[in-house]
Amino acid sequence: YLSVSSKVILIGDTGVGKTSILQRFLLGRFEPFPPISQGVTFRTRSVPLPDRSTTVKLMLWDTAGQERYNALTQSYFTNCAAALVVYDISDQLSFERAGDWVKQLLRFSREPSDAALSSQ
């Protein structure tokens, strides 16, 4: 039996649905209007792989999208295995800024990370 851990960050502008997506994954329910995140929120969830002999402990970092937390966010790009870039499908600017978040990920992560783009 093998257990590994992986750091996953959720990034994107404020109010695009990062926390809602995380709560859906963790709790199995969708909250369309959760409180706005301040700074960075950390959660974990263990997920068994299909072979059932390996479990991945996901260390999930929900970052506030506010610019004032930009310096704080940069430190969390380090050592992430994956990033979920989130935008609001009804907000064109959040979609355009998703590219900026990907650029920050590429700039500040020390190792190549997997990234996925998700709309809320």
Short description:
The protein is of the alpha/beta class and 120 residues long.
Description:
This protein has a single domain, classed as P-loop containing nucleotide triphosphate hydrolases (Rossmann fold). It contains three helices and five strands. The chain has helices at residues 18-27, 70-77, 92-108; strands spanning 2-11, 40-48, 54-63, 82-87, 114-119. Helix 3 (92-108) links the parallel strand 4 (82-87) and strand 5.
SSE inventory with pairings:
Layout: E1 2-11, H1 18-27, E2 40-48, E3 54-63, H2 70-77, E4 82-87, H3 92-108, E5 114-119
Parallel strand pairs: 1-3, 1-4, 4-5
Antiparallel strand pairs: 2-3
Features:
120 residues; alpha/beta; Rossmann fold; five-stranded mixed beta sheet; 5 strands
The share of residues in helices is: 25-40%
Count of separate DSSP helical elements = 3
Q: In the CATH hierarchy, what is the class?
A: Alpha Beta
- Strand arrangement within the widest β-sheet reads 2-3-1-4-5
CATH third-tier fold name: Rossmann fold
State the domain count.
1
Distance between the termini: 36 Å
DSSP summary, beta strand count: 5
Kindly name the structural category: alpha/beta
Integer average pLDDT = 82
* Rg over C-alpha atoms, rounded to the nearest angstrom: 14 Å
Shape-level CATH architecture? 3-Layer(aba) Sandwich
Biggest sheet features: 5 strands, mixed
Q: SSE order in H/E notation?
A: EHEEHEHE
- Indicate the proportion of strand residues: 25-35%
GO molecular function: GTP binding; GTPase activity
Keywords: Nucleotide-binding
